[in-house]
Amino acid sequence: MIMNNEEIEVEPGLSSRMDGFEAPETIVMSMRARTLMAEGKKVISLALGQPDFLTPKIAIEGGYQAALEGKTKYPPIDGFLSLKQAIQKKFKEENNLDYALDEIMVANGAKQILFNAMMATLNPGDEVIIPAPYWASYPIMVQFLGGKPVHVICPEYNNFVLKAGQLEAVITSRTKWLILNSPSNPTGAVWSKEDLLAVGEVLKANPHIWVFADEIYEHLIFDGQHHYSLAALVPELKNRILTANGVSKTFAMPGWRIGYAGGVRRLIKAMMKIQSNSTSGACGVSQEAATAALQYAQKDIELMKLAYDQRRKKMTAVFSAMAGISCNIPQGAFYIYPGIAECIGKKTAQGRLIKNDQDFSEALLEEAYVAVVPGSSFGLSPYLRISYAADDAVLDEACQRIIEFVQNLV
Ligand SMILES: Cc1ncc(COP(=O)(O)O)c(C=O)c1O
Predict the structure, then answer these.
(1) Which range of residues forms the domain containing residue 178?
(2) Which pLDDT tens digit goes with each residue over 165-181?
(3) Which pTM value belongs to this model?
């Protein structure tokens, strides 16, 4: 290790930007799980946020045909016209949002949409309001690009949802973005129409703020809840909202790396400049697969949603009945976010002291071979994020092991 002139520790040969950047805990837990598996342990990983379903056949065929037809050249920076037209139709029909074609862009996942947007707008020290618990990539990306994440804790008694008063209290002249993610990773929380309208009022009074509306889990929504796009609900804000989405979760296509966004022309144009000088656009074969998914895979969505809903009910029933664990009932996404406050200070069967949710997760992995992610990775402890994007038998076995692990705490 060497120190640069600002007393920041950096690895030789790496930029100071890299200092303090750790791999997200989701990846760390999955890597640990893989190491244990390689040692022959029967590990169950509920740590990663990806669907266990196969990509719909119609999408695979769309990609395959595109490859055979030679759609393997560099794609247009903003995406194929056919995909953009499918996205335009989707925004109109599902979200009641009118975007012109040059207000839409395609990227390598919603993650690159986020990167493009932050890279195109953040100046050093600009503040980005991030309701916690949050998807871990938000603050990392903001920091990476010189911005300052401003976390606002959204407690369980508010269903992990940001309230307008909380937003108002943290806005400054340096606030550049508010990030909204409904349904939410990691909690599965869904913002109600009333909550969004109230937040919208605060934003109306603060015209210097952009909103990153991450709607990637919009189709995974249960209990008759409705997904509202803020840009449609509060049209006065539409020109300041970037509506981000993608096919990774809805269509079980995380490896195809297709995300997209609708937003005001000048922002999309700036984001395209970033993209043209970084990745040149998204894989053409994947774009064709995504087009087919958006056009023809509606039935697949319904079937997956049904399965997720059944698993959600099972998981919340099991965790709500577990002594020492509290379990909020999520209304979206494919995660539960149980609280483990009563387990803190106890010892495991093998004598490990549980001081926090990280200790709990590590012990659960080492002793019961179940990988989950501690709430500390998402900005709110002591909780666990447990993904139920796994088949029933796997979930049953995982629940059994967790029940035994918790019962054995003393
Ligand atoms: C809330 C949220 N937004 C965006 C993404 C990124 O999705 P993509 O695969 O499209 O990059 C994820 C993936 O985990 C997510 O949970």
Answers:
(1) 57-297
(2) 999 999 999 999 999 99
(3) 0.94
